[in-house]
Design a protein that fits this description.
GO molecular function: metal ion binding; sulfur dioxygenase activity; thiosulfate-cyanide sulfurtransferase activity
InterPro entries: Metallo-B-lactamas, Mito_Persulfide_Diox, POD-like_MBL-fold, Rhodanese-like_dom, Rhodanese-like_dom_sf, RibonucZ/Hydroxyglut_hydro, Thiosulphate_STrfase_CS
Largest sheet: 6 strands, mixed
Domain Rhodanese: 263-355, 370-458
Number of strands: 24
Keywords: Metal-binding, Plasmid
Strand content: 15-25%
CATH architecture of the largest domain: 4-Layer Sandwich
Protein name: Metallo-beta-lactamase family protein
Radius of gyration: 24 Å
Structural class: alpha/beta
Number of helices: 16
CATH topology of the largest domain: Metallo-beta-lactamase, Chain A
Mean pLDDT: 94
Distance between the termini: 62 Å
Shape: globular
CATH class of the largest domain: Alpha Beta
Low-confidence stretches: none
Length: 464
C-alpha cells in the first residue's frame, strides 16, 4: 500500500493519497484547491492512476480541489449521499466500500461536525482484514474533537458526535492509526499540538473529550471555549457543493494610477507585507494582514468583505501569486491585481501615503505611567487575554473592532497590543481606516512585554 499525507499548516489542513501498489490505483481524500498541482506531480512520480476523489464532508473552512482533479484525471468524486452536492459524483452510504486492488476504502457515517460527515477506514487485504488506518476528516483530531456548531445547533451536533465517536470510531481496533483532516491552526477544532497522527487506542486513553462518558457533560464540554467560527463559511460550503469549479483571482500588475482608480470604485487594498513595511508607508485605508504572519486566510476572512474587489500590496511579485492562491482557499476570488513597483512606485507617482507609529514595550510602559488618557487595547484571543495582560488594558479582539470601535475615544491616543506585533498592525489598520488619528502598534506585543519583566494581571476585562 502507498500512503502519503499532504499538509498545509497555514490553517491546519491535511489531505491524503492512498493507493494500491499492485494495481497502481489511487484515491485522494479531502484535497484542498491549492494542493492540486502537488497531487498531480505525486501521482505522476509514483506511476499511479487516480480513480477516486473522496470528500469526508462539505468543508466550511477551505475550498476543495475536487473539480480540478477530476478534470485533470477523469477520476470519480465520491461524497456522502447526504451532502446535497450538485456536481457529478458517486454517493456514499454507511458501509460502502471502494476497491483499489488489495486496498479497500470503507465509508463510515460519523455525523456531528456536519450531518453528512464520513470517515474512511483503509484496509490492506494483503496484511489483514482489519482497518490499518482511518482518515477521520473533521471528527477525531490529535488530542481533540471537531467542533459541533458549524452546520447545525452546537447541542445537536455534540450529541451526534458523542454517538459517532463511541458507537463507530472507538469500535475500531485500538491499534488503528488515525490521520485527521486538520492539525494545529484550524478553526474547526481546538487542537494546538503539532502531531499529525495518532491511534484509536491512544486517543481513547488520553483525549480529554473521550474521557467524558456522560453524554450531557460531553455536550457542554464541546460547546465551551470554541475558537471563532471559520470566516466566510457559508460561501465556502456552497462553493464546495456547486456544480461549477471555483474561480481564482489574478496576480496582474497594476499601475499606481489604476490602483487609485479601483480604490475610488470601491476596491479594498489588502497590504500583505510585514508589519514593519506597513508601518513605514502604506496606502490610506489599506488593511494590513501579513502574508507570513500566521493564520493569513483566517485573518483576512475575519476583517475583509468577501464581496469586494481586492488590490494587493506586496513586497515581491511572487508574493502576489502566493497570496492569490491562498485567498482562493477561502473562496476569495475577487483579487484584480497588485500594485506594481510597490509603495515606492505609489510614492513616486505623488499619491498620498500614511505611516503607522510603532512603540517599544518600554515606550508603552513609560507612557502608561505618565498619561492617564492613553487607551491600551489588547487585540488577542480571549484565551490569550485570560493567561495575562497589561493592567488597565481593554480587551477587544482585532476582528471585533469593526463592530466595537465606538467603544474607543478617537480624541485620546490608542496603543494596540497583540502577541508579537502582527495583529496589532492589523488592528491599527482597521482603526486608521476609520480615521482614528492617534493609533500606535506595540512592537513585539505581549511576548516582548513579558520578556522585559513588565507587570501583567489576570483580572477582569476592562469595558469602560
Amino acid at each position: 500500500m502507498f500512503f502519503q499525507q499532504i499538509l498545509r499548516t497555514d490553517i491546519g489542513c491535511a489531505a491524503y493519497v492512498v493507493a494500491s501498489t499492485d494495481a497502481g490505483l489511487a484515491a485522494v481524500i479531502d484535497p484542498r484547491i491549492d494542493m492540486v498541482d502537488e497531487i498531480l506531480d505525486l501521482l505522476q512520480r509514483e506511476g499511479l492512476q487516480l480513480r477516486y476523489i473522496i470528500e469526508t464532508h462539505n468543508h466550511a473552512d477551505h475550498v476543495s480541489g475536487h473539480h480540478q482533479l477530476a478534470a485533470a484525471t477523469g477520476a470519480t468524486i465520491a461524497v456522502s449521499a447526504l451532502a446535497g452536492v450538485t456536481y457529478p459524483h458517486l454517493p456514499l452510504h454507511d458501509g460502502d466500500e471502494l476497491e483499489l486492488g488489495e486496498v479497500v476504502l470503507r465509508a463510515i457515517h460519523t455525523p456531528g461536525h456536519r450531518p453528512e460527515h464520513i470517515v474512511i477506514a483503509v484496509i490492506d487485504r494483503s496484511r489483514s482484514r482489519d482497518p490499518w488506518l482511518v482518515l477521520t476528516g473533521d471528527t477525531l483530531f490529535v488530542g481533540d474533537i471537531a467542533r459541533p456548531d458549524l452546520a447545525i445547533d452546537g447541542q445537536e451536533g455534540a450529541a451526534a458526535l458523542f454517538d459517532s465517536l463511541h458507537q463507530r470510531l472507538l469500535q475500531l481496533p485500538p491499534g488503528t492509526l488515525v490521520f485527521p483532516g486538520h492539525v494545529a491552526g484550524s478553526l474547526c477544532g481546538r487542537v494546538n499540538n503539532r502531531m499529525t497522527g495518532t491511534t484509536i487506542g491512544f486517543e481513547a486513553r488520553n483525549n480529554p473529550a473521550l474521557q467524558i462518558l456522560d453524554r450531557q457533560t460531553f455536550i457542554r464540554f464541546m460547546n465551551e471555549n470554541l475558537p471563532e467560527r471559520p470566516p466566510n463559511l457559508a460561501r465556502i460550503v456552497e462553493l464546495n457543493r456547486a456544480a461549477e469549479p471555483p474561480r481564482m483571482g489574478t496576480a496582474t500588475p497594476l499601475t499606481p494610477a489604476r490602483v487609485r482608480e479601483l480604490i475610488e470604485q470601491g476596491a479594498v487594498v489588502l497590504d500583505v507585507r510585514s508589519p514593519a513595511s506597513f508601518a513605514a508607508s502604506h496606502i490610506p485605508g489599506a488593511i494590513s494582514v501579513a502574508l507570513d504572519g500566521g493564520q493569513f486566510q483566517n485573518r483576512v476572512g475575519l476583517v475583509v468583505p468577501p464581496d469586494r474587489s481586492l488590490v494587493l500590496v506586496v513586497e515581491r511579485e511572487e508574493d502576489a501569486h502566493r497570496a492569490v492562491q491562498m485567498l482562493a482557499v477561502i473562496g476569495y476570488d475577487q483579487v484584480v491585481g497588485y500594485l506594481a513597483g510597490g509603495m515606492a512606485a505609489w510614492e513616486r507617482a505623488g499619491f498620498p501615503y500614511r505611516t503607522l507609529p510603532v512603540l517599544t514595550v518600554h515606550d508603552l510602559a513609560r507612557w502608561r505611567e505618565e498619561d492617564p488618557t492613553l487607551q491600551i487595547v489588547d487585540v488577542r484571543e480571549p484565551s490569550e487575554w485570560a493567561e495575562g495582560h497589561i493592567p488597565g488594558a481593554r480587551h477587544i479582539p482585532f476582528y471585533r473592532l469593526p463592530e466595537r470601535w465606538t467603544e474607543l475615544d478617537p480624541s485620546r491616543p490608542i496603543a494596540l497590543v497583540c502577541g508579537a506585533g502582527t495583529r496589532s498592525a492589523l488592528a491599527a489598520s482597521l482603526l486608521r481606516s476609520r480615521d482614528f488619528p492617534r493609533v500606535y502598534s506595540v512592537e513585539g506585543g505581549m511576548d516582548a512585554w513579558r520578556a522585559a519583566g513588565l507587570p501583567t494581571t489576570r483580572g477582569a476585562v476592562v469595558t469602560a
